[in-house]
Design brief:
The chain is an alpha/beta fold and 136 residues long. Helix content is 30%, strand content 20%. A five-stranded parallel sheet has the order 4-3-5-6-7, with helices on both faces. A two-stranded antiparallel ribbon has the order 1-2. A hairpin with a 2-residue loop joins strand 1 and strand 2. Helix 1 packs across helix 4 and helix 2 runs parallel beside helix 3. The longest helix has 13 residues. The chain is globular and about 40 Å long. It starts with a strand and ends in a 10-residue tail after the last helix.
Length: 136
């Protein structure tokens, strides 16, 4: 089971996390893992257009993004997140060489993924929440 809490509370306490994943079961496993860690899930969204539309009016602290939403590699969501200065990670079956160079600094977790590792990486990306220690 994923470690989702620290001594000072859930590791994503109140963080709004956008989940963009078209694989139904994985999307809902990610949603459950983020919620167990105290995060608030936006989505999951199975397509770029829906995810980007949601970004327009929502507070998002971090995101998990699959780059293949059924039609090959798409970086539309990643580009929108960068434009809004929202930290994110790629959760993908593609290796780093398949992604455009501009995403070289973006964390990438390969599928199949350890959900605990995804949650811990999100914690690093979004930082400690109010009332939590800053140590990681």
């Amino acid at each position: 089971m994923a470690r989702t809490c620290e001594a000072d509370g859930p590791i994503l306490a109140g963080a709004a996390i956008l989940v963009v994943e078209d694989e139904f079961y994985l999307a809902f496993e990610l949603k459950a893992a983020v919620e167990r860690a105290g995060g608030i899930v936006a989505g999951p969204f199975a397509d770029a257009a829906s995810a980007i539309a949601h970004l327009a009016g929502a507070r998002i602290d971090g995101a998990i993004v699959d780059v293949n939403l059924g039609n090959g590699i798409s970086t539309l969501v990643a580009d929108a997140l960068i434009g809004r200065a929202v930290p994110f990670l790629f959760l993908t079956g593609y290796d780093a060489a398949a992604l455009p160079d501009r995403f070289g600094g973006v964390d990438r977790i390969e599928k199949p993924a350890d959900l605990g590792a995804v949650v811990r990486k999100l914690r690093v990306l979004v930082g400690p929440r109010e009332g939590q220690a800053a140590t990681r």
